[in-house]
Amino acid sequence: GEQAFGQRFGWYVQAVRNRVSSNWLQSTVDPTVQWAPRAVIDFEILRDGTIVNVQLMKSSGYPSVDASAVRAIQMSSPLNPLPGAYSGSYVNVEFWFDFRR
Question: Which pLDDT belongs to residue 1?
């Protein structure tokens, strides 16, 4: 059902993407890191927009990149409530962070 959520509520997905991106403080990444493999973070958005169960699913291999990605998710809570037309109590999200200077 997650893919269907993205198809039905693309505007909400874009709003989440924009919020998390604006909270990603890349200046907190170790200055010697110029590029890092993708970090993948999983989390859930509850009906009221609260973000819970933030988990690093795939490390970039650079602790400062991973920490900044997790922090960006945590700083984005709460998001706007889930769309009223969505009947679920939460949505599971996989968010990708690609670090490049």
Answer: 46
Query: Radius of gyration of the chain from Cα atoms?
Result: 14
Alpha-carbon distance of 28 to 87, in angstroms, equals: 38
Residue-level pLDDT at 72: 98
Which pLDDT value is given to residue 88? 92
By C-alpha distance, which of 39, 32, 21, 36 is closest to 75? 21
CB 23 within 8 A of CB 75: yes
d(CA 32, CA 63): 12
The residues of the chain scoring below 70 in pLDDT are: 1-3
Q: Tell me, what's the pLDDT at 3?
A: 59
Alpha helices in 24-97 (DSSP H): 63-75
Enter the DSSP assignment of 81: P
- Cα distance between residue 87 and residue 85, in whole Å: 6
Q: Is the peptide bond before 81 cis (omega within 30 degrees of 0)?
A: no
Closest by CA to 32, choosing from 60, 54, 64, is 64
